[in-house]
Protein backbone atom coordinates (compact mmCIF):
# COMPACT_ATOMS: atom_id res chain seq x y z
CA UNK A 1 0.00 0.00 0.00
CA UNK A 2 1.40 3.39 -1.04
CA UNK A 3 0.23 5.33 2.01
CA UNK A 4 1.79 8.67 1.06
CA UNK A 5 0.65 8.38 -2.57
CA UNK A 6 -2.88 7.70 -1.39
CA UNK A 7 -2.79 10.73 0.92
CA UNK A 8 -1.61 12.99 -1.89
CA UNK A 9 -4.51 11.89 -4.10
CA UNK A 10 -7.05 12.34 -1.32
CA UNK A 11 -5.92 15.83 -0.22
CA UNK A 12 -5.25 17.30 -3.69
CA UNK A 13 -8.83 18.63 -4.19
CA UNK A 14 -8.58 20.66 -0.97
CA UNK A 15 -5.28 22.45 -1.80
CA UNK A 16 -4.32 22.95 1.83
CA UNK A 17 -1.75 25.66 2.58
CA UNK A 18 1.23 24.31 4.54
CA UNK A 19 3.97 26.62 5.80
CA UNK A 20 7.63 25.54 5.83
CA UNK A 21 9.33 28.21 7.96
CA UNK A 22 12.95 26.95 7.98
CA UNK A 23 13.95 28.75 4.81
CA UNK A 24 17.71 28.57 5.41
CA UNK A 25 17.64 24.81 4.76
CA UNK A 26 18.08 23.93 1.08
CA UNK A 27 16.10 20.70 1.63
CA UNK A 28 13.06 22.86 2.41
CA UNK A 29 13.39 24.64 -0.93
CA UNK A 30 13.79 21.30 -2.73
CA UNK A 31 10.69 19.95 -0.99
CA UNK A 32 8.69 23.08 -1.80
CA UNK A 33 9.69 22.75 -5.45
CA UNK A 34 8.62 19.09 -5.47
CA UNK A 35 5.22 19.88 -3.93
CA UNK A 36 4.71 22.63 -6.51
CA UNK A 37 5.35 20.09 -9.27
CA UNK A 38 3.07 17.45 -7.78
CA UNK A 39 0.31 19.93 -6.95
CA UNK A 40 -1.33 18.11 -4.02
CA UNK A 41 -0.97 21.13 -1.67
CA UNK A 42 0.22 24.71 -1.67
CA UNK A 43 3.45 25.44 0.19
CA UNK A 44 3.78 28.79 1.96
CA UNK A 45 7.32 30.14 2.41
CA UNK A 46 8.35 33.22 4.43
CA UNK A 47 10.83 35.65 2.92
CA UNK A 48 11.52 38.06 0.08
CA UNK A 49 9.26 37.21 -2.85
CA UNK A 50 11.85 37.55 -5.60
CA UNK A 51 14.51 35.60 -3.70
CA UNK A 52 12.12 32.80 -2.74
CA UNK A 53 10.70 32.45 -6.23
CA UNK A 54 14.19 32.41 -7.71
CA UNK A 55 15.28 29.66 -5.31
CA UNK A 56 12.19 27.56 -6.09
CA UNK A 57 12.75 27.99 -9.82
CA UNK A 58 16.39 26.94 -9.47
CA UNK A 59 15.22 23.77 -7.66
CA UNK A 60 12.98 22.88 -10.59
CA UNK A 61 9.71 24.06 -9.08
CA UNK A 62 6.91 26.30 -10.29
CA UNK A 63 7.04 29.65 -8.44
CA UNK A 64 3.43 30.32 -9.41
CA UNK A 65 2.39 27.38 -7.20
CA UNK A 66 4.24 28.71 -4.14
CA UNK A 67 2.85 31.35 -1.79
CA UNK A 68 5.38 33.78 -0.31
CA UNK A 69 4.62 35.72 2.86
CA UNK A 70 6.61 38.75 4.04
CA UNK A 71 7.69 37.75 7.55
CA UNK A 72 8.74 41.35 8.27
CA UNK A 73 5.37 42.96 7.48
CA UNK A 74 4.53 45.09 10.56
CA UNK A 75 0.76 44.59 10.45
CA UNK A 76 1.14 40.82 10.15
CA UNK A 77 3.68 40.64 12.96
CA UNK A 78 1.52 42.77 15.22
CA UNK A 79 -1.48 40.53 14.64
CA UNK A 80 0.48 37.34 15.28
CA UNK A 81 2.08 38.81 18.41
CA UNK A 82 -1.38 39.52 19.79
CA UNK A 83 -2.42 35.94 19.11
CA UNK A 84 0.55 34.66 21.13
CA UNK A 85 0.03 37.23 23.86
CA UNK A 86 -3.61 36.20 24.23
CA UNK A 87 -2.57 32.57 24.60
CA UNK A 88 0.35 33.07 27.01
CA UNK A 89 -0.28 36.21 29.03
CA UNK A 90 -1.64 34.06 31.88
CA UNK A 91 1.94 32.73 32.06
CA UNK A 92 3.32 36.27 32.32
CA UNK A 93 4.22 36.77 28.65
CA UNK A 94 4.21 40.45 27.67
CA UNK A 95 3.26 41.78 24.26
CA UNK A 96 6.86 42.89 23.67
CA UNK A 97 8.09 39.36 24.44
CA UNK A 98 5.51 37.97 22.05
CA UNK A 99 6.79 40.27 19.30
CA UNK A 100 10.37 39.16 19.94
CA UNK A 101 9.35 35.50 19.79
CA UNK A 102 8.24 36.04 16.20
CA UNK A 103 11.89 36.43 15.24
CA UNK A 104 12.10 32.63 15.53
CA UNK A 105 10.87 30.83 12.39
CA UNK A 106 9.08 28.18 14.46
CA UNK A 107 7.00 30.76 16.32
CA UNK A 108 6.21 32.64 13.13
CA UNK A 109 5.05 29.46 11.39
CA UNK A 110 3.08 28.07 14.34
CA UNK A 111 1.30 31.40 14.90
CA UNK A 112 0.40 31.55 11.22
CA UNK A 113 -1.32 28.20 11.81
CA UNK A 114 -3.07 29.34 15.00
CA UNK A 115 -4.24 32.55 13.34
CA UNK A 116 -5.79 30.56 10.48
CA UNK A 117 -3.57 32.15 7.83
CA UNK A 118 -2.31 28.69 6.83
CA UNK A 119 -3.68 25.19 7.39
CA UNK A 120 -0.62 23.54 8.91
CA UNK A 121 3.14 23.64 9.46
CA UNK A 122 6.06 21.27 8.87
CA UNK A 123 9.39 22.05 10.55
CA UNK A 124 12.25 20.48 12.46
CA UNK A 125 14.88 19.97 9.78
CA UNK A 126 16.94 22.57 11.69
CA UNK A 127 15.21 22.92 15.07
CA UNK A 128 15.15 20.13 17.64
CA UNK A 129 11.99 18.13 18.30
CA UNK A 130 11.84 19.51 21.84
CA UNK A 131 11.81 23.10 20.57
CA UNK A 132 9.19 22.37 17.94
CA UNK A 133 6.85 20.57 20.34
CA UNK A 134 7.22 23.30 22.96
CA UNK A 135 6.45 25.95 20.34
CA UNK A 136 3.42 24.01 19.10
CA UNK A 137 2.04 23.73 22.64
CA UNK A 138 2.59 27.45 23.28
CA UNK A 139 1.03 28.58 19.99
CA UNK A 140 -1.63 25.98 19.22
CA UNK A 141 -2.13 23.78 22.28
CA UNK A 142 -3.85 20.41 22.68
CA UNK A 143 -7.00 19.44 20.82
CA UNK A 144 -10.35 19.66 22.57
CA UNK A 145 -10.83 16.74 24.94
CA UNK A 146 -7.13 15.87 25.05
CA UNK A 147 -4.38 16.94 27.41
CA UNK A 148 -1.51 14.97 25.89
CA UNK A 149 0.53 15.81 22.80
CA UNK A 150 2.04 12.61 21.44
CA UNK A 151 3.34 11.09 18.23
CA UNK A 152 2.86 8.12 15.98
CA UNK A 153 4.44 6.34 13.05
CA UNK A 154 2.69 4.63 10.21
CA UNK A 155 4.49 1.41 9.32
CA UNK A 156 4.12 -0.41 6.03
CA UNK A 157 5.33 -3.97 6.62
CA UNK A 158 6.54 -6.31 3.87
CA UNK A 159 4.35 -9.05 5.38
CA UNK A 160 0.82 -8.02 4.43
CA UNK A 161 -0.76 -10.42 6.89
CA UNK A 162 -0.24 -7.85 9.65
CA UNK A 163 -2.58 -4.91 10.21
CA UNK A 164 -4.41 -3.86 7.05
CA UNK A 165 -2.37 -5.18 4.13
CA UNK A 166 0.78 -4.55 6.16
CA UNK A 167 -0.19 -1.07 7.36
CA UNK A 168 -0.02 -0.42 11.12
CA UNK A 169 0.22 2.58 13.41
CA UNK A 170 2.59 2.76 16.42
CA UNK A 171 2.11 5.26 19.28
CA UNK A 172 3.72 6.93 21.19
CA UNK A 173 7.26 6.59 19.85
CA UNK A 174 8.65 10.08 20.27
CA UNK A 175 7.05 12.37 22.85
CA UNK A 176 5.93 11.06 26.24
CA UNK A 177 8.67 9.10 28.06
CA UNK A 178 6.55 7.40 30.71
CA UNK A 179 2.85 8.06 30.16
CA UNK A 180 0.34 7.66 32.95
CA UNK A 181 -2.72 5.50 32.39
CA UNK A 182 -4.70 8.66 31.57
CA UNK A 183 -2.06 9.78 29.09
CA UNK A 184 -2.09 6.35 27.45
CA UNK A 185 -5.82 6.81 26.92
CA UNK A 186 -5.23 10.20 25.25
CA UNK A 187 -2.57 8.60 23.05
CA UNK A 188 -4.91 5.77 22.06
CA UNK A 189 -7.78 8.14 21.24
CA UNK A 190 -5.50 10.31 19.10
CA UNK A 191 -4.07 7.20 17.42
CA UNK A 192 -7.56 5.99 16.53
CA UNK A 193 -8.35 9.33 14.91
CA UNK A 194 -5.04 9.28 13.04
CA UNK A 195 -5.58 5.78 11.68
CA UNK A 196 -8.99 6.73 10.32
CA UNK A 197 -7.56 9.89 8.74
CA UNK A 198 -4.48 8.34 7.16
CA UNK A 199 -5.64 4.85 6.20
CA UNK A 200 -9.39 5.36 5.90
CA UNK A 201 -10.18 2.22 7.93
CA UNK A 202 -11.39 1.53 11.47
CA UNK A 203 -8.70 1.16 14.16
CA UNK A 204 -8.25 -2.03 16.17
CA UNK A 205 -6.23 -0.97 19.19
CA UNK A 206 -3.93 -3.09 21.35
CA UNK A 207 -2.46 -1.66 24.55
CA UNK A 208 0.82 -3.53 24.85
CA UNK A 209 2.63 -5.00 27.84
CA UNK A 210 4.87 -7.93 28.75
CA UNK A 211 1.70 -9.56 30.09
CA UNK A 212 -1.44 -10.83 28.41
CA UNK A 213 -4.56 -10.51 30.53
CA UNK A 214 -2.96 -11.22 33.89
CA UNK A 215 -0.23 -13.65 32.79
CA UNK A 216 2.20 -11.52 34.84
CA UNK A 217 1.74 -9.17 37.75
CA UNK A 218 3.74 -5.98 38.17
CA UNK A 219 3.07 -2.24 38.64
CA UNK A 220 4.11 -1.71 35.01
CA UNK A 221 1.36 -4.09 33.95
CA UNK A 222 -1.15 -2.46 36.29
CA UNK A 223 -0.77 0.83 34.41
CA UNK A 224 -1.74 -0.79 31.11
CA UNK A 225 -4.66 -2.63 32.71
CA UNK A 226 -5.96 0.65 34.13
CA UNK A 227 -5.49 2.43 30.79
CA UNK A 228 -7.47 -0.30 29.03
CA UNK A 229 -10.38 0.02 31.46
CA UNK A 230 -10.39 3.82 31.17
CA UNK A 231 -10.24 3.69 27.37
CA UNK A 232 -13.16 1.27 27.13
CA UNK A 233 -15.26 3.51 29.35
CA UNK A 234 -14.31 6.66 27.46
CA UNK A 235 -14.65 5.24 23.93
CA UNK A 236 -16.94 2.19 24.15
CA UNK A 237 -17.36 1.96 20.37
CA UNK A 238 -13.63 1.36 19.74
CA UNK A 239 -12.25 -2.14 19.18
CA UNK A 240 -9.77 -2.28 22.07
CA UNK A 241 -7.95 -4.89 24.09
CA UNK A 242 -5.22 -4.95 26.71
CA UNK A 243 -3.03 -5.68 28.40
CA UNK A 244 -1.58 -7.74 25.54
CA UNK A 245 1.80 -9.08 24.58
CA UNK A 246 2.76 -8.23 21.01
CA UNK A 247 2.18 -11.73 19.64
CA UNK A 248 -1.28 -11.92 21.22
CA UNK A 249 -2.10 -8.59 19.58
CA UNK A 250 -1.01 -9.33 16.01
CA UNK A 251 -0.90 -13.14 15.47
CA UNK A 252 -4.35 -14.76 15.27
CA UNK A 253 -3.13 -18.25 16.24
CA UNK A 254 -1.39 -16.90 19.35
CA UNK A 255 -4.40 -14.78 20.27
CA UNK A 256 -6.64 -17.84 20.00
CA UNK A 257 -4.51 -19.59 22.63
CA UNK A 258 -3.69 -16.71 24.97
CA UNK A 259 -6.79 -14.49 24.77
CA UNK A 260 -9.52 -16.43 22.93
CA UNK A 261 -12.19 -13.88 23.83
CA UNK A 262 -10.20 -10.89 22.52
CA UNK A 263 -12.25 -8.62 20.23
CA UNK A 264 -9.10 -8.06 18.19
CA UNK A 265 -8.59 -11.75 17.38
CA UNK A 266 -4.89 -11.10 16.86
CA UNK A 267 -5.60 -8.51 14.14
CA UNK A 268 -4.59 -5.24 15.81
CA UNK A 269 -3.64 -2.42 13.45
CA UNK A 270 -2.84 0.19 16.13
CA UNK A 271 -0.22 -0.57 18.80
CA UNK A 272 -0.08 1.65 21.90
CA UNK A 273 3.16 1.24 23.83
CA UNK A 274 3.47 1.53 27.62
CA UNK A 275 6.51 3.84 27.46
CA UNK A 276 8.91 5.57 25.10
CA UNK A 277 11.64 2.95 25.54
CA UNK A 278 9.49 0.18 24.10
CA UNK A 279 7.87 2.35 21.42
CA UNK A 280 11.11 3.84 20.12
CA UNK A 281 12.94 0.50 20.13
CA UNK A 282 10.09 -1.31 18.41
CA UNK A 283 9.59 1.14 15.56
CA UNK A 284 13.31 1.20 14.79
CA UNK A 285 13.61 -2.59 15.08
CA UNK A 286 10.66 -3.01 12.71
CA UNK A 287 12.39 -0.75 10.22
CA UNK A 288 15.93 -2.13 10.51
CA UNK A 289 15.24 -5.84 11.01
CA UNK A 290 11.92 -6.13 9.23
CA UNK A 291 12.41 -3.75 6.32
CA UNK A 292 9.27 -1.76 7.11
CA UNK A 293 8.65 1.61 5.48
CA UNK A 294 8.31 4.38 8.07
CA UNK A 295 6.00 7.38 7.75
CA UNK A 296 6.57 9.80 10.61
CA UNK A 297 7.01 11.00 13.23
CA UNK A 298 3.50 12.42 13.11
CA UNK A 299 2.39 14.67 15.96
CA UNK A 300 -1.00 13.88 17.48
CA UNK A 301 -3.24 15.65 19.95
CA UNK A 302 -2.69 19.22 18.76
CA UNK A 303 -5.61 21.54 18.05
CA UNK A 304 -4.18 22.36 14.62
CA UNK A 305 -1.79 20.40 12.37
CA UNK A 306 1.93 20.86 13.07
CA UNK A 307 4.47 18.16 12.29
CA UNK A 308 8.06 17.47 13.20
CA UNK A 309 10.97 16.38 11.02
CA UNK A 310 14.15 14.54 11.80
CA UNK A 311 17.17 16.81 11.43
CA UNK A 312 18.60 14.11 9.18
CA UNK A 313 15.55 14.08 6.90
CA UNK A 314 15.64 14.12 3.12
CA UNK A 315 13.66 16.50 0.94
CA UNK A 316 11.41 13.56 0.01
CA UNK A 317 10.60 13.04 3.68
CA UNK A 318 9.63 16.70 3.96
CA UNK A 319 7.29 16.22 0.99
CA UNK A 320 5.75 13.23 2.78
CA UNK A 321 5.29 15.29 5.94
CA UNK A 322 3.50 17.98 3.90
CA UNK A 323 1.09 15.30 2.63
CA UNK A 324 0.48 14.04 6.19
CA UNK A 325 -0.14 17.58 7.47
CA UNK A 326 -2.51 18.34 4.62
CA UNK A 327 -4.39 15.15 5.44
CA UNK A 328 -4.74 16.20 9.09
CA UNK A 329 -6.00 19.60 7.93
CA UNK A 330 -8.76 18.03 5.82
CA UNK A 331 -10.45 16.34 8.80
CA UNK A 332 -14.20 16.60 8.41
CA UNK A 333 -14.04 18.05 4.90
CA UNK A 334 -15.80 15.98 2.33
CA UNK A 335 -15.29 12.32 1.41
CA UNK A 336 -11.70 11.33 2.12
Q: What structural keywords apply?
A:
336 residues; alpha/beta; six-stranded mixed beta sheet; 13 helices; globular
Summarize the structure.
By secondary structure, this protein is of the alpha/beta class.
What does this structure look like?
- This protein is of the alpha/beta class and 336 residues long.
- The chain is globular.
- It has helices spanning 3-11, 26-38, 49-58, 74-88, 95-101, 105-114, 129-139, 181-199, 219-234, 246-250, 252-258, 276-290, 315-329; strands spanning 17-19, 42-46, 66-69, 120-123, 150-156, 167-171, 204-208, 239-244, 270-272, 293-300, 306-308.
- Helix 4 (74-88) crosses helix 6 and helix 6 (105-114) packs parallel to helix 7 (129-139).
- The chain is built from 13 helices and 11 strands.
- A 6-stranded mixed sheet has the order 8-7-9-6-5-10, with helices on both faces.
Number of helices: 13
Mean pLDDT metric: 93
State the total count of DSSP E strands: 11
Q: Characterize the overall form.
A: globular
Write the element-wise H/E pattern from the N-terminal end onward.
HEHEHEHHHEHEEHEHEHHEHEEH
Largest sheet: 6 strands, mixed
Adjacency order of strands in the biggest sheet: 8-7-9-6-5-10
Q: What is the gyration radius calculated from CA atoms?
A: 21 Å
Amino acid sequence: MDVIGSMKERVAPFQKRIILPEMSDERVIEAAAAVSREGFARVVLPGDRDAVQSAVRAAGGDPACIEVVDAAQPALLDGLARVLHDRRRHKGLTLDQARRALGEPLYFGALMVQAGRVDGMVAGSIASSARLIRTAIHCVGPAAGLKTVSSCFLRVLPDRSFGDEGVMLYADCGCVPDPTAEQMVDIAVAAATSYRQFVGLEPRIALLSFSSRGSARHPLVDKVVEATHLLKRREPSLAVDGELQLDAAVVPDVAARKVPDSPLKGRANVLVFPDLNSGNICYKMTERFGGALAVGPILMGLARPINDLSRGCSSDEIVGAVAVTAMQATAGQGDL
